[in-house]
Amino acid sequence: xxxxxxxxxxxxxxxxxxxxxxxxxxxxxxxxxxxxxxxxxxxxxxxxxxxxxxxxxxxxxxxxxxxxxxxxxxxxxxxxxxxxxxxxxxxxxxxxxxxxxxxxxxxxxxxxxxxxxxxxxxxxxxxxxxxxxxxxxxxxxxxxxxxxxxxxxxxxxxxxxxxxxxxxxxxxxxxxxxxxxxxxxxxxxxxxxxxxxxxxxxxxxxxxxxxxxxxxxxxxxxxxxxxxxxxxxxxxxxxxxxxxxxxxxxxxxxxxxxxxxxxxxxxxxxxxxxxxxxxxxxxxxxxxxxxxxxxxxxxxxxxxxxxxxxxxxxxxxxxxxxxxxxxxxxxxxxxxxxxxxxxxxxxxxxxxxxxxxxxxxxxxxxxxxxxxxxxxxxxxxxxxxxxxxxxxxxxxxxxxxxxxxxxxxxxxxxxxxxxxxxxxxxxxxxxxxxxxxxxxxxxxxxxxxxxxxxxxxxxxxxxxxxxxxxxxxxxxxxxxxxxxxxxxxxxxxxxxxxxxxxxxxxxxxxxxxxxxxxxxxxxx
Length: 524
Description:
Blueprint: E1 5-9, H1 13-25, E2 29-34, E3 45-48, E4 51-54, H2 65-74, H3 83-88, E5 110-114, E6 117-121, E7 124-127, H4 134-139, H5 142-157, H6 166-174, H7 176-191, H8 201-206, H9 212-221, E8 242-246, H10 250-263, E9 267-270, E10 272-280, E11 283-291, E12 297-301, E13 304-307, H11 311-317, H12 324-331, E14 333-345, E15 367-370, E16 379-382, E17 397-405, H13 416-429, E18 438-455, H14 460-468, E19 473-475, H15 478-481, H16 487-503, H17 509-512
Helix pairs in contact: 1-10, 1-16, 5-6, 6-7, 11-12, 12-14
């Protein structure tokens, strides 16, 4: 009897996890079709003249021990100090396993990194997530502090009973004044529309574990916190102090996974776009794939189909026989697009005023949320602090400037040169760099990075009801489910789907439940 085949659309974390799980737990043969020329999706690592850029930043930490162990099975935790650990004489709780890898001798290793993210606002640094501690209060004037306190007391006494928007969600948890000061402008910079037009479900997925009470507790507790374990089981995900990180960036892990898949007999085809799916009764029977290098179109039959492609494209690919209402909802789904401007510099202008030691004393942040209203820049990554091995020369500084926009708008439409000049000017404007210190730049554009919680999203259940009826079709991952999942949640959706196949579970309910109870994971 021939082995069964699974057709997997997309080679991001969800697609690669599905293929890996199939090969290690079943006799089903996976065939992956990826439309780009590189695996990893937004978790890929981009080479930049000997340096490596992590698109969006990926902290390898999850509340799911299954995912945490999965990562470590691919790249084991470091057992010896890394380059910057040695230089800074930094104490890290290394793996105690026999033959745990030495980052200075092998690339196949997961580093243990300290986490620091901050907000840059009013020309000052605030904790991220916001902590109501001495630093925060010293950055604000007394009048603002009183208004924040009074508005929070008011909302606790008279909460919004039915949250109809993301604005309601924020106000119920932080009060109106804190919402207006720290949440409104940045969120609207990310999504491009007012918070009162966005579904509260975004907040429910991303920050439901946080509140002003926890912000106060965190601010008081942080100086005394001693939890240095990598599992940090009793810590809110957004408050963790450490995370794992592949030595050469997230793409390294997915390259390793892709290699395992190929060695075990799975197939991965790059620059192959799935342009159509044929179905009969309640099953998908074949897919149509276009080789983007040659233009040739072929068909691929399958017993199971896993889709990580944007839901809008999936429904379009199913053809005109799809019910009209489902087509209408799919056409109305919205996305936000993402641009990373990579900058290589001689040095930073902004000074490190913390007590955290870094190489060349650069600011110690992994990333910084830029909430200054005078610039379009949303977030800034400092790759030196993710892994020293991302840089060809550790005495240089490698930054990632993140812009969230819509394909075709003013920012997206700039030429690469124009966008680099624009980004350099913005970063100079807020005092982070001197323009003359820029050595080189690169532009990385990623369409449909953020599935949006507006447009026709409030009717998404119509699509879900339609697709769930196909016994052998599994929607997994961020774009596959049109949900703002992080890589660990995307992986879990694939894992649960494979579990269902093994156990002959027909319902897709448990796949959709992934990330309804998990807490926030700070990542693009």
